[in-house]
Every structure is written in C-alpha cells, then in structure tokens.
Amino acid sequence: MKLIAKWFVCGCLMILYCVPVGAQDRENDVTSPRKSIQSLYYQISGGVNNPKLATDLLNASWLDADERIQRVEQLQVVLEAKGLLPEMESIPDDPNFVDSNLGKSVYEPFKSEPRIFLEKVGSSWLVSGTTVGSIPDMYSEVLPFGLTYLIQKMPEQGAMIFGIYVWQLIGFGLILLIGFVIAAIVRAVAIRIFKRLLVKWKMPADSVMVLQSMGKPLALFIWVFLVGLLQPILGLPVSISAFIILTIKFALPVIAIFMAYRFVDLISYRAAQLAERTQSTLDDQLIPLLRKALKFIVILVGLILLLQHLGFDITALLAGVSIGGLALAFAAQDTIRNLFGSVMLFIDRPFTVGDWVAFESVEGNIEEVGFRSTRIRTMADTIISVPNGRLADLTVDNYGLRVFRRYRTTLGVEYSTSPELLAEFIVALRKIITDHPATAADDPRSLVHFREFGASSLNIEVQLYINSSEMASEWQAREEINMAFLETANRMGVSYAFPSQSLYLESVPETSTLYKG
User: Do 435 and 353 lie in a common domain?
Assistant: First the structure.
C-alpha cells in the first residue's frame, strides 16, 4: 500500500508540474524547513526555472555568484536523477525545529541521501554548507561515463507539451531506442557464449531451454538499467524523474529475482551432471532438494532487498522475522536437528543410495535420503524411516562399501578320521578356495586350519573372502564353494560329524535280577 501511495503521489505531482500554470517569480520563504524545501522546488520545477533566486537558499557565502548558480544547477540534476521528491506534509514547519538525535537545528529531508540537509543560519533555514560542498561529488555520481558532457549540450528551452520540452520527449524516445538496441546486442552475445559453454559441458536440452528463457529478462534488465542511467541527462522535472526512478527501482530487483530463480536451474543441471560422474548416489539424491532450498532463499532474499531498495524500513521486519524465527526454532528443534543431520550425511557420506547398512536393530537397503529422514527397505520388504538427526549420531555398518564379502564356517569331521586324511582334506579345501574365480585367493586373511577338538567332531575353521558387490552373486559363490567342499569330502571318504553323545556303562545288571518275581 505504501508503494502504491508513492506512485499515486508521484503521478499527481507529475501532472501538476507538467501543466503550465503561468508561474511567476516568487520570493523565497526560509522561515522553516518545510517552507525552504517548498521554495527550492518551486524555483527549480513546476514551470519555474530560476537558479538565480534558488541561490539564496544555499549557505554558500564563500562562493561567487556564478559558482552558486552552478551549484544550484548541479543540485537540480542530482534531485532529478535520484528522483528525490519529499513528502511536504512530513517536513516540520517549526522555525525552531531541533533534531532530537543530533541536538542541532538541522533537518534531513531524504533518508536515501543523507548528504543533503538543511541547517538554520540565524533565522533562516538554508541548504547546509556541507551539502553545498558535496554537490559536485553527487553530481559526478549521477552522471558517470562522460554524461556530464552530454547534459551540457542539451538545450535549455524550446517548445513545450504539457510542461515538458519537445526535445526532452524526443530524447527520452531515443534513450528507449538506444537502450533496446544495446540490450538486444548484449542478450544475443551472452546467449551465444553461454550456449557454447552448455555444449562444451554437454548439458541436457532442458538447460538450453532455461538459458533461452533467461534471455528476455536479461535484455529487459539491461534496458531498464540503461534508461535509469541515461535519463538524468534530459533534465526532466523532479516529479517525472521520481516516477521513473521509482518504477525502475521496483522493476530491476523483480527482474533480477526472476533471473536468479532461473539461474538456480542451470546450476542444478550442472551440479547433477557433475554428480553423475561420482560413484556416490547420495549427491544425486540431494541435488533436487538443494535446488528447492536455493530457490526459496533467492525469493526470500530478493523480496527483502526489493523492500530495502524501495526505501522501506526493513529493520522492524527483520526483527520480527528474527523473533518469529527464534520461536519457530524452539518449536521445531527436531526438524532443524534433522536438517543439519542431512547436511552432515551429505558432507561425510557414510553411505549412498543403494548401500546395504546395519545399525542397532535395523538392517536393509538405503532407498532414499531426504532432508528430514532416510528411508530403508528391510529384508522383510518393509520401509523404515530414520530421522537424519538421529542417524548422523549412530554407528552405521555399511556393507555396501565392502571390497570383499567374508564367508566364515566350521566343518566338523568325525573323530575316526586319521591325521593323514585330515591333513590331505585341509589341503584340498585350500585348493578349492584358491581355484574359485570369485575368491580373493591372495588375501592373507583367507584361512583353512584344524582349529580345535570339538565335543563331537574335529573342527576345521574356514574363512575366505568373495569378490562381489551384490548379495545374489555372493550367495551363488557360497553355494558353489559349499558344494565343492561336500564333493571333495565324499570323494576322499571324509565323513562330516553331527552332534552326538557316547554313553559308557561300567556293568550291566543281570536279566534275572531285573525281572525277579
């Protein structure tokens, strides 16, 4: 509503000041800040252009008459270029006004340009000497790149339409045309350069479409920027300049937000392309989530900067957001903890999508890593969701990162097996492991030894490592090795023992005694 009100006031003043009213020279009234500001704007706008009378409003006694006129003209350009149009009703009309913060009789009419202020000299409110000394610097700032030379070549009078010189209207049309041409050229060159980069990076076709969608906003941004840069040389009335500047201040951030929003898509495409080259699938899962987060940040920061650019006081807004954010943080501690847990999982990469993991009583395959939780599919084909904040603190056993899969078993043979046959059988088992294509034969951890005398068998401990990344191939290799163990035992006449007990009796009672009588 405040922005609409500003546009409405600027529009009304633009109509008021652009229509000739037959204004005559009028004496300056410097008895209060408001009357001094009114006198200044009356002399430099509203159909009146009398810099000589306006010099009486400057506290510049150390300058001669010509220099004072030059400072007034430069100040007029600064006011027009920056669109500085004060709200007269908010300016104090008290001759004895004192700034409560500074404790001095000074007044700053523009928050966006604190270098311009009034000071009380005797009983008169004049443009301060400090401001007069800063006018050349401000003048150079609003007319960079040699535009000072152009404004000096502009005519000072001519035919008028609704209070605007015809040459100003023509000049504004030329500025629009020049800005359009330059923007079109820059857009074409930028799109061409970025397309070459996309082709070089082998980006998907969607990224080219996103790039083309950024072309028109880019050209519009450059066009609006150039209009804002060049329009001060026309010397348009302050009311019109204020309307144009306010529109530009609104348009540029909005266009920039849209371009940044679309640029996030390009970054995401490139990040996804780089993620495909890595073995980890966790970054592939997080890139879409990061894209959404970046877009949210772009919109949030863009809106705050837009409000600040339009002159709104965002201090109270940020304070409110901070307090609200603090309350929200207390209410959503677990959510924030899970969010940071997601970040830590992304940085540490303890597992990736597709890995088989085990922790506490959970064991299964990683299906999805989200911002809040990780989804795990168990052997029972159920889905378990574990909060990332908790998961980041746990000790996770990642079977998916295994280079080899260990197979460990115990073969028990009967006690009746001779030592010579047992030794030959152990050698044969070692040869089976060495010859199998899926085993790590040279791994020193692969062992086959007669380990112990069991309760009912002679126990041979077998430990080997299978070169496989999938459970199906691992179990296939186990089956082949077990079958080879069994066939070798049958061929060599080695019998596997089973749990048994032997009962020894010292004497057997006579039958007649058991059935006496």
Answer: no
